[in-house]
Amino acid sequence: MKLIRTLGLGALLGSALAAPAHAFDLLQALQAARQYDAGYASASAANRAGAEKAVQGRALLLPGIGLSASTTQTKPLQPAGSNYRSDSLGVQLTQPLFDTASYSGYQKGKIASTVAQLQFDASGQQLVIDVAKAYFDTLLAEDVLSVTRATKTAYERQLAQARKAFEVGTATITDTHEAQAGYDAATAQEIAALSDLDLKRNALAQLTGLNPESIRRLRDKPQLSAADLGTLEAWTQRAQQNSLALQLQQQQLTLAEKNLDEARGKHLPTVSLNAGYSHNRSTDAASVASGRDTTRGSSVGLSLKLPLYAGGAIDSQVTEAAANLDKAREDLEAARRQNAQNVRRSWLGVSNGAALVKAQEQLLVSAKSKLDATRLGKEVGVRTNLDLLNAEKDYQDAIRALAQARYNFLQARLALAQAAGTLDDEVVEEVNRFF
C-alpha cells in the first residue's frame, strides 16, 4: 500500500487538540490515525519483527562458528604426584551441506516475512475503512441530531399554535394532545441522538486523537457518480490478482507445502562439513619432559546422519502435513469465493448507491414541495396541523436518508478498493475531494 505524503502530522495533532476550531477532513483523519492508533502501531511492530524471520531462516544455511575454552587443575592421588594444569582453546566450524530441514526453515523464514508484510498492509487498509466508518458515522449522527431538532422545533411550534387555537375555541383538545405527543417523542429522540453522537465522536477520537467536533462536512450537493466504475467482472479479476486476503491465504498454502517437504525430508540423511583448530597446553611433568606440553592441531571432516527408525513419528508427521496442505487448499478456495462475494457486494453498493443518491435527492425535492404545499394548504384551511407535521417529518426524514445514502456510497467505494486490494491513498484522496 502506498504511503501517504507527510503533511506535518505532529503539527496537525497539536493544533487540532489545542484549537477545536481547526477543522480536519477524511485524509487528515487518516494521517492522524496512522500516528495515534495503538492497533496500527502494534501491526507496524509485528511487521518489523516478522521481517527478521527471513534473516533467521537464511542463518540456517550459513556456517556456524564457535569458540571453546577450558582450564583444568589436576591433583594426582594414586600414585602421588605434583599438581598440574591443562588449558585448551579451540575454534569449530560447521557448514550444512545437505539438510532438508535447514533449507525448509530458510524458505519458511522468507514466507513468514512476506506474511508479516501482507498483514501490515492489510491492517493499513483496514485502518482506512475503520477511520472512514467512524468519520461517516459521526457525520450521520450530526445529521440525525439536526433532523431531530428540526422536527422537535416543528412540533413545538405546532403545539403552541394548537394551545392558542384551543384557547380561542378554533381547535379541539385532540389537536393539542397530538402536538404534545409529537413534541414529547421528538424530545426523546433528541436525547437518544445526542447520546449516539457522543459515542460516534468518541469512536473517531479513539482512532485519530483529534477533536471530533472539528470534523469537515460534505460539500454542498456533491456530485456522486458511478460513471467510471467499470464492470463487475473487471473488479473481480483485479481482486483475484491483488487482494491481500487472497495473497495471505496463498502464502499459507505455500507454507503448508514447505511443511510437507520438511516432514518428508526427515527420512533423508543430513551431511555437514566440520572443521576445527585447537591449542592445548599442560604443565604435567611428563608432558614437559617429553617436550609435548604444548600441542596444536586442525581437523576437517564430513559427518552424515541417517534416521533409521523414530517410532513412526516421521510417517505421522508426513500424514499430518499432507492433511494440513489439503486444508490450506480448501481455505484458499473459500477465500476466493468470499472475496468474490465481497467485491460483488461493494460493487453493487457503489453502482446502486449512486442511483440511490440521485433518487434520494429527487425525493428531497419532492418532500420540500409537499411541505410548502401543505403549509399553504393549512393557511387557507384545507390542511390540518397533523398534515403539516407529517409533511415536516417526511421532509426531515428525506434529509437524513439522503445523507445516509451519500455516506454509504463513499464507504462502499472504499470497501470495493479494499476487496480488490487497491485501497491506497489515491483512493482516499478521490473520496476526500467531496469534503
Brief rundown of the structure:
By secondary structure, this protein is of the alpha+beta class.
Textual characterization of the structure:
With 435 residues, the protein is α+β, with helices and mostly antiparallel strands. The chain has one domain (9-36, 100-268, 314-432): Outer membrane efflux proteins (OEP), CATH 1.20.1600. Helix content is 68%, strand content 12%. The chain has helices at 9-18, 26-36, 38-59, 100-168, 173-208, 232-242, 244-265, 285-290, 313-379, 385-419, 425-432, and strands spanning 64-74, 84-98, 270-282, 294-305. A 4-stranded antiparallel sheet has the order 1-2-3-4. Residues 272-294 are annotated as: Disordered. It is found in: Cell outer membrane. This is TolC family outer membrane protein. Residues 272-285 have a biased composition (Polar residues).
Please supply descriptive tags for the structure shown above:
Outer membrane efflux proteins (OEP); TolC family outer membrane protein; 11 helices; cell outer membrane; disordered N terminus; 435 residues; transmembrane; four-stranded antiparallel β-sheet; coiled coil; alpha+beta
Secondary structure blueprint with pairings:
Layout: H1 9-18, H2 26-36, H3 38-59, E1 64-74, E2 84-98, H4 100-168, H5 173-208, H6 232-242, H7 244-265, E3 270-282, H8 285-290, E4 294-305, H9 313-379, H10 385-419, H11 425-432
Antiparallel strand pairs: 1-2, 2-3, 3-4
Helix pairs in contact: 2-4, 3-4, 4-5, 4-7, 4-10, 6-9, 7-9, 9-10
